[in-house]
Amino acid sequence: MIGIVDYRAGNLTSVARALENLHEPCMITNDSRSLDDVSHIIFPGVGAAGAAMANLRESGLDGQLRKWVRNGKPILGICLGAQVIFDRSDEDDTPCLGIVPGEVKRFPADRREGGERLKIPHMGWNRVSFRKGHPVFAGIPAEAEFYFVHSYYPAPADETWVAGWTDYGIRFCSAVARGNLVSVQFHPEKSGRPGLTLLANFCRWGGIDAQ
Amino acid sequence: MLSKRIIPCLDVRDGRLTKGIKFKDNADIGDPVEAARAYYEQGADEIVFYDITASAEGRAIMLDVVKRVAETIFIPFSVGGGIGTVEEMRRVILAGAEKVSVNTEAVKNPDIIAEGARAFGSQCIVLGMDVKKVLASSEIPSGYEMMIHGGRTFTGLDALRWAKEAERLGAGEICLNSIDADGTQDGYELDLTALISSHVGIPVIASGGAGKPEHLLDVLTRGKADAALIASMVHYRTHTILEIKNFLNDHGVKTRLQW
């Protein structure tokens, strides 16, 4: 059973629908005891970091998430879920969960590519160069693209956490992996077949990083 | 580097496509769910639904269409047409749409943009703009005027000023339709698209006038658009999405080719 953490950060049903399409049983819940019992946890979310952290603290899910990461259960962070795992975010100057050392920064407003000013949010399809050999990224073609929509990006203090890079005016960390934790800035549930492959890989993954 | 998005637009009335689309064997598809699935398989980067239903009954049918589409395709899609309150936005988003677009409703009540952005995030809120070229005046300095009610009513609102105001209120994207170019298949309104796109910091989807792949190349380069809406040219199978994408890539505009 896959548990999708509900902390009032956007619409989580699209992740559930993608898992249903993969015939993976899942539940959307904010109940930490139910989440203790699932085999895998998905930590999604869209919206603002400040409100998300306030909801996590209020519900006590902040401490639970740290515990699940320590205990070795496979965890997949998506979008905002891939940001609030860092120490802090530029968005609303928010202290975050501190699971991954580093910060979440806003895209600089003045970047250009091919003579055009880059828009913020970074919205649309872009490539990810994944670290080789990680089971969650297996079978994804190098030319595959993923759907992004975000104005802030993760910047790990230590690059050994980085599992994927993407270019948008700057090169930023679009995937993180260490131990039982994987997180992606893009939306695998909205990224067509490559995204579904990633989700299917995660659901079959035992939580051990090959690195 | 971000790919330029190619987005088929489907008009829906009472749960059916207003004009059927042609599929492989040239059979006519009238079901929006099947059509969305077909375009997903053919490499659409996103899908736009425009609900032209007037009745409450038709709206309920549209929500059911949105639910079934969300179970079938795994790319973003937006729904527009007659959405004027946060509660109406919530229903469409919970049914599975990524984005909602507001047009006439936002001109009448600009606060809906800010309220929607607060409730769901800016990335969910698309401002739809129907624009007509007019003589530049003190009221309409850009020479482009906003129209509402599907292009039947002038508003006295300058299109450029409105685009900037909507961005300030929290719109995450603009879908910019030229009333003059719409339906002509003679090409997008490049000057209008470049004007709006270069004056806002959010992505702009160009709409109206697409008839051949060259038109998309023009609007994605000279028109500075971030994405292009297409309708007839794929609905009637005069072109395929793959053919359009290959053409753009061959001419130096990066699109997503692996799906």
Key structural traits:
heterodimer; A: 211 residues; alpha/beta; Rossmann fold; four-stranded mixed β-sheet; 5 helices; 24% helix; globular; B: 259 residues; TIM Barrel; 37% helix
Provide a quick synopsis of the model.
The complex is a heterodimer of chains A (211) and B (259). By secondary structure, chain A is an alpha/beta fold.
Q: Which strand order does the major sheet of chain B show?
A: 1-5-6-7-8-11-12-13
Helical run tally of chain B = 10
Overall mean pLDDT score of chain B?
94
Percent of residues in beta strands of chain B: 15-25%
In order across it, which strands form the biggest sheet of chain A?
2-1-3-4-16-15-14-11
If you had to describe this structure to a student in words, what would you say it looks like?
- The model of chain A has no long low-confidence stretch (mean pLDDT 94).
- With 211 residues, chain A is an alpha/beta fold.
- Helix content of chain A is 24%, strand content 34%.
- Chain A has helices at 13-21, 32-37, 49-59, 61-71, 192-204, and strands at 2-5, 26-29, 40-43, 75-78, 86-89, 94-95, 100-106, 112-113, 116-117, 122-127, 129-130, 145-150, 152-156, 162-168, 170-178, 181-184.
- An 8-stranded mixed beta sheet of chain A has the order 2-1-3-4-16-15-14-11.
- Chain A is built from 5 helices and 16 strands.
- Chain B has a single domain, classed as TIM Barrel, CATH 3.20.20.70.
- Helix content of chain B is 37%, strand content 24%.
- Chain B has 10 helices and 13 strands.
- In chain B, the strands form 2 sheets. An 8-stranded parallel barrel of chain B has the order 1-5-6-7-8-11-12-13, surrounded by 7 helices. In chain B, strands 3-4 form a two-stranded antiparallel ribbon.
- The longest helix of chain B is centred in the first third of the chain and has 17 residues, at 56-72.
- The mean pLDDT of chain B is 94.
- Chain A binds chain B through residues 10-11, 13-14, 17-18, 20-21, 46-48, 109, 113, 116-127, 141, 143-145, 147-149, 167-168, 187, 189-196, and chain B through 1-5, 40, 45, 70-71, 74-76, 93-94, 96, 98, 120-123, 172-173, 198, 201-203, 224, 226-227, 256-259.
